[in-house]
């Protein structure tokens, strides 16, 4: 084993913009955005399901684009706008996608749900929700072991106004 | 309840009451409890299936800034008392961590690094140097069947024999012999197992962990560390999926708790996803060897000899015979099971343990026998419908399987099926239609609950039970709201705290019926006590009336045009609240089960009682589409119809059933733990290589829950569980559909392209 026992200066100071709020943190360089959100800022709505970018539970928006926060170094987010599930709707309110997930029972245990919703919002915003097949494809980076996939598709179609559209053209 | 009572919520399509918290990310899972000064732990698991730790050097790890300690079998003061493995005891395994250098299974905990930050702990864990003396191992069922290093244990108590199957099979002209295999599967709930241990002195500890059975953590810590069970306070309000892996405690609980006691600070451990493949149980691999004698269109005798994998200790059986023993009217039947020990570590129940794996062989065999008999697979099953339980001879408590066949077949369009394999196509794509029967035993537990009415009209429901995504919060609120004639929004359900009224393990699909019935009893008891207050109160409009004439709705007691709000009754009595506690023993159980519950044991009430055999039933129909060149199968359509007794919440019950059906797809086409024969370790211990369905793998899925058939032989609510039934038989229905599409009969799961091209 040749791992160095010396860690970089743990007091790297970062200012992150999370849900419109400026947050100053002191973290090691290797700290991931996910661990900083969960362990330092106590924004635990963003979930750790694998820590390898394989399950999508940690999905957040950085400058409006979906990012896997477990594969994103916190220091790479300085000066960029991070949005987590906690910042999706005003305090006490629900984003239409959150309301649709409740209505369609698009979750059971709820652990993958924040990541699903962050991806689902992006699916509609990026005009990828035209039919069920397109949604299934877009949402396939977010695993749900409870297997609420049909209900997730229904919730997104509801928000996108494409309910009843099954396969895309040519399928 | 009387005829005029409120029936507003039970059975309705009610959105989850915990939904807003979950979609906002506000539901607090175990690792998210914010404890000041919490330390972070990283576990190191054995990279060895059998042997001993020959060198363990922690010097470099200890030099990492922020590291407080590295614990292992070399640490002082880590001797533990014996703990029983489930089902004899509360733990997932009796093999305790850090008790010596011996390694008896892959992934056994060998060291725990604790540091001020997660980053420091993770870095230091890479610096712990470990070497092993490796010994020969059997890490798979096949390896253990090929050459015995460990014992094989016949399990006579699980066996069954009726009639004279041996004699008939010996002389029958038409005997079909088939072997079916199912692989190791890993639960992989999305929330990884985690523990935070927070001590108050050396004798009292609070444990935050996701669990399906809080008393498992209590019993395990009490036995291992010499504590009183009630001094272990377990907090588990939300569980990010369990499927059986969170039913029992695992060794990482013990090492986290001990580290926290030694360091006198709260310690948090979150397992890695890779560790979820080694340290928290798995569904054992199974082999089912069948012989069936056909006499024209009837099975005249059926024999199943099964070999199932288990770990090096504890001997938890994957009960593949559960469904084959009872599903069809076969007069002559024999079942035998042998447990085959391996170094793969402790196995444990995983969603429909035994029923899911055992139904694969049975339901593919039924398809093969139907073809031999020249009958439609549905018709063949109808001809073997069991009107009474073939295993026990007892009447079924409530069985509507034929209605399930009719409803599901009708919705699917089964009558348009052409029987010849390969005969249904959509362009070049091969279409296959297959079906299977589902059944699942109705288990129950003694249960306890408390209901409390506040003077402002709020209602609390308290039960030391769990919501693992099954909808427990919602159904308990619905039951209490109807029993007290109030609005759902006024009811708050409290679960997941060991200080709440004791309840059993949330597994075997028994929480809804058992805990639901306790909440019903507590809410009805509360209402009865308030009624007694009213009729005895001269100031009540209901004074002097007979309680039997009084109904409850709209938050008030009613008798004709007279009305007395529940909150007024409390106010007049000068109370700010009134609470009622109830214990229930479901039919089939007795004081023994209630006593067991109170002593922290499982105390499960079995499906077959003195009077009835209690099972839920269903029928599953699937369509697969197979590319003729690449032989890639896709499940495009599933329709299942299920008889689950009284449906408590149509929305969450359907989600449970749909989830089960998709688990069937996963078993049929995706899931398999791959073990390296050289090292005995899991090769695909991550969510990219261990395949489970993604959204694009799933087509149309429809679950029909029959209604109008409450089963009061199983619970006071008439409800049976919905969580496990949907997976039973589904993998076989898909295998049968693939055969119908391609003519290829695959007798092992998962059905992957290599098998279809072979």
UniProtKB/TrEMBL annotation, chain A:
Pfam families to which the protein is assigned, alphabetical: Fer2, Fer2_2
InterPro entries: 2Fe-2S-bd, 2Fe-2S-bd_dom_sf, 2Fe-2S_ferredoxin-like_sf, 2Fe-2S_ferredoxin-type, 2Fe2S_fd_BS, Aldehyde_Oxdr_Iron-Sulfur, Beta-grasp_dom_sf
Cross-referenced Gene3D superfamilies: 3.10.20.30, [2Fe-2S]-binding domain
CDD domains tied to this protein: fer2
Ranges for domain 2Fe-2S ferredoxin-type: 12-88
Keywords: 2Fe-2S, Iron, Iron-sulfur, Metal-binding, Oxidoreductase
Coiled coil: none
UniProt superkingdom: Bacteria
Molecular function GO terms recorded: 2 iron, 2 sulfur cluster binding; metal ion binding; oxidoreductase activity, acting on the aldehyde or oxo group of donors
Protein name, as recorded: (2Fe-2S)-binding protein
Native organism: Deinococcus indicus
High-level lineage: Bacteria, Thermotogati, Deinococcota, Deinococci, Deinococcales
UniProtKB/TrEMBL annotation, chain B:
Domain Aldehyde oxidase/xanthine dehydrogenase a/b hammerhead: start-end pairs: 24-136
A single MF term (Gene Ontology): iron ion binding
InterPro entries: Ald_Oxase/Xan_DH_a/b, Ald_Oxase/Xan_DH_a/b_sf, Ald_Oxase/xanthine_DH-like, AldOxase/xan_DH_MoCoBD1, AldOxase/xan_DH_MoCoBD2, AldOxase/xan_DH_Mopterin-bd_sf
UniProt entry keywords in alphabetical sequence: Molybdenum, Oxidoreductase
Superkingdom of this protein's organism: Bacteria
Disulfide bond listed as a keyword: no
Endpoints of the signal sequence: none
Protein name stated in the entry: Aldehyde oxidase/xanthine dehydrogenase a/b hammerhead domain-containing protein
UniProt organism field: Deinococcus indicus
Phylogenetic classification of the source organism: Bacteria, Thermotogati, Deinococcota, Deinococci, Deinococcales
């Amino acid at each position: 084993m040749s791992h160095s026992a010396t860690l970089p200066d743990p007091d790297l100071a970062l200012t992150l913009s999370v849900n419109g709020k400026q947050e100053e943190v002191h973290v090691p360089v290797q700290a991931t955005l996910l661990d900083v959100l969960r362990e330092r800022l106590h924004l635990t709505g963003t979930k750790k399901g694998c820590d390898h970018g394989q399950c999508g539970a940690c999905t957040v928006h950085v400058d409006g684009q979906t990012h896997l926060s477990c594969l994103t170094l916190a220091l790479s987010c300085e000066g960029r706008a991070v949005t987590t599930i906690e910042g999706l709707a005003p305090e006490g309110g629900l984003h239409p996608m959150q309301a649709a997930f409740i209505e369609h029972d698009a979750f059971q245990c709820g652990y993958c749900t924040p990541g699903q919703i962050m991806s689902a919002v992006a699916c509609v915003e990026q005009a990828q929700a035209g039919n069920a097949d397109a949604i299934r494809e877009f949402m396939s980076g977010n695993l749900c072991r409870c297997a609420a996939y049909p209900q997730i598709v229904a919730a997104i179609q509801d928000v996108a106004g494409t309910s009843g559209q099954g396969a895309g053209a040519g399928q | 309840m009387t005829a005029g009572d409120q029936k507003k919520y039970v059975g309705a399509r009610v959105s989850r009451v915990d939904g807003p918290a979950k979609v906002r990310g506000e539901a607090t899972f175990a690792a998210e409890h914010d404890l000041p000064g919490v330390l972070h732990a990283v576990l190191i698991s054995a990279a060895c299936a059998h042997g001993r730790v020959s060198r363990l050097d922690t010097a470099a790890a200890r030099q990492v800034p922020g590291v407080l300690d590295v614990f292992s079998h070399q640490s002082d003061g880590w001797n533990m008392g014996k703990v029983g493995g489930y089902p004899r005891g509360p733990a997932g395994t009796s093999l305790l961590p850090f008790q010596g250098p011996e390694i008896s299974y892959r992934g056994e905990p060998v060291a725990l690094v604790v540091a001020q930050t997660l980053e420091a702990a993770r870095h230091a864990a890479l610096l712990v140097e470990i070497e092993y003396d490796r010994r020969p191992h059997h890490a798979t069922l096949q390896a253990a069947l090929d050459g015995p290093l460990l014992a094989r244990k016949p399990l006579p108590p699980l066996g069954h024999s009726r009639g004279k199957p041996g004699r008939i099979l010996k002389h029958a002209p038409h005997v079909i012999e088939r072997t079916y295999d199912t692989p190791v599967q890993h639960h992989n709930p999305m929330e990884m197992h985690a523990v935070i241990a927070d001590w108050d002195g050396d004798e009292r500890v609070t444990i935050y962990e996701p669990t399906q059975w809080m008393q498992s953590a209590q019993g395990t810590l009490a036995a291992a560390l010499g504590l009183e069970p009630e001094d272990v306070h377990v907090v588990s309000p939300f569980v990010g999926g369990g499927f059986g892996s969170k039913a029992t405690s695992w060794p990482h609980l013990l090492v986290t708790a001990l580290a926290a006691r030694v360091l006198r600070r709260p310690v948090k451990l979150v397992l890695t996803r890779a560790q979820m493949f080694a340290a928290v149980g798995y569904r054992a691999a199974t082999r089912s060897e069948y012989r069936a004698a056909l006499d024209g269109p009837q099975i005249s005798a059926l024999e199943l000899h099964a070999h199932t994998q288990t770990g090096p200790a504890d001997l938890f059986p994957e009960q593949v015979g559960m469904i084959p023993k009872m599903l069809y009217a076969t007069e002559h039947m024999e079942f035998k099971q042998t447990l085959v020990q391996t170094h793969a570590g402790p196995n444990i129940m995983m969603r429909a343990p035994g029923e899911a794996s055992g139904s694969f062989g049975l339901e593919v065999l039924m398809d093969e026998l139907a073809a031999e008999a020249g009958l439609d697979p549905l018709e063949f099953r109808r001809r073997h419908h069991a009107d009474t339980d073939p295993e026990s001879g007892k009447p079924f408590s409530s069985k509507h399987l034929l209605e399930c066949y009719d409803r599901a077949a009708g919705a699917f369009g089964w009558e348009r099926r052409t029987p010849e394999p390969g005969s249904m196509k959509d362009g070049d794509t091969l279409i296959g239609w297959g079906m299977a029967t589902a059944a699942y035993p109705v288990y129950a537990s003694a249960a306890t609950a408390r209901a409390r009415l506040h003077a402002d009209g709020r209602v609390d429901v308290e039960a030391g039970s769990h919501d693992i995504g099954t909808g427990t919060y919602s159904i308990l609120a619905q039951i209490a709201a109807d029993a007290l004639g109030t609005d759902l929004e006024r009811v708050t359900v409290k679960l997941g705290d060991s200080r709440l009224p004791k309840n059993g393990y949330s597994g075997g699909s028994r929480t809804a019926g058992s805990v639901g019935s306790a909440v019903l009893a507590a809410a009805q008891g509360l209402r009865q006590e308030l009624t007694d207050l009213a009729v005895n109160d001269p100031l009540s409009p209901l004074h002097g009336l007979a309680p039997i004439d009084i109904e409850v709705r709209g938050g008030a007691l009613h008798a004709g045009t007279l009305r007395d709000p529940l909150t007024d009754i409390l106010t007049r009595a000068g109370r700010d609240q009134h609470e009622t506690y109830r214990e229930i023993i479901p039919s089939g159980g007795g004081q023994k089960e209630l006593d067991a519950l109170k002593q922290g044991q499982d105390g499960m009430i079995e499906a077959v009682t003195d009077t009835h055999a209690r099972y839920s039933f269903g029928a599953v129909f699937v369509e697969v589409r197979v590319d003729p060149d690449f032989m890639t199968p896709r499940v495009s359509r599933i329709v299942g119809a299920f008889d689950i007794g009284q449906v408590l919440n149509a929305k969450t019950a359907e989600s449970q059933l749909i989830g089960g059906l998709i688990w069937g797809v996963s078993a049929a086409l995706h899931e398999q733990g791959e073990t390296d024969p050289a090292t005995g370790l899991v090769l695909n211990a991550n969510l990219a290589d261990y395949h489970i369905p993604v959204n694009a793998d799933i087509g149309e899925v429809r679950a029909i829950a029959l209604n109008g058939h409450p089963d009061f032989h199983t619970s006071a609510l008439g409800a049976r569980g919905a969580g496990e039934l949907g997976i039973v038989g589904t993998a076989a229905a898909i295998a049968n559909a693939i055969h119908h599409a391609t003519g290829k009969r695959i007798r092992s799961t998962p059905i992957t392209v290599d098998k279809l091209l072979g």
